[in-house]
Amino acid sequence: xxxxxxxxxxxxxxxxxxxxxxxxxxxxxxxxxxxxxxxxxxxxxxxxxxxxxxxxxxxxxxxxxxxxxxxxxxxxxxxxxxxxxxxxxxxxxxxxxxxxxxxxxxxxxxxxxxxxxxxxxxxxxxxxxxxxxxxxxxxxxxxxxxxxxxxxxxxxxxxxxxxxxxxxxxxxxxxxxxxxxxxxxxxxxxxxxxxxxxxxxxxxxxxxxxxxxxxxxxxxxxxxx
Amino acid sequence: xxxxxxxxxxxxxxxxxxxxxxxxxxxxxxxxxxxxxxxxxxxxxxxxxxxxxxxx
Lengths: 225, 56
Fold this sequence. Notes:
The complex is a heterodimer.
Chain A: H1 2-39, H2 62-92, H3 99-120, H4 133-156, H5 160-176, H6 190-224
Helix pairs in contact in A: 1-2, 1-6, 2-6, 3-4, 3-6, 4-5
Chain B: H1 2-33, H2 38-50
């Protein structure tokens, strides 16, 4: 059982992590590098010369981007292990896992770790003000825990008691509210911040669809072997 | 009796394998995405921002 989980998660996590890394380097990294010019003060929003919208060109920094590829693969392997563990648990309870259904599992995963936290705590562009990191981490982990639980209740619940609980759990972190800074002292233009957040979510969605699909595919394949 | 024991043992070992895999995954995600040690933070910086993890 453990070998089957590990094999499926490693293949799926690596594939999704690699795709996430490539999409991130092409679509997110130029926005991030542009924002860092404002974070470090190399560019000044509303400065004497105004803010020229043209940003840095697409480049590849072997060390920095190589590490991004490595850590992206690591993060998605972690996600893959949790996702395949959840699939295994569901199969033990009579749920059939197919590659096609894996896409739905991937979407639920994306909502859990990307979309739900982003509703109250959007992906942060460098040079934006934020509350204390530890308290944001507590909110982030609590949010993914209750959102993950609500995804399971929506998918496998049999009645309105379960679905009602899922709705309450989905809303709870946002009713409580995410930690935000007391003062807005961000130096990066809002145009870059919003582009960064939506691109980051787009990359997450793409990678999670691949993760769900491939995790379910390898899980099935390893089961028939 | 023997069959029941075997089934129970297999179910328990499956549950243990599932729990272990899930905790391992969580551990990797926390290590790569959330631990604030400066070397780790610097190496994973861009991925952390792009993944929507709280960073800095």
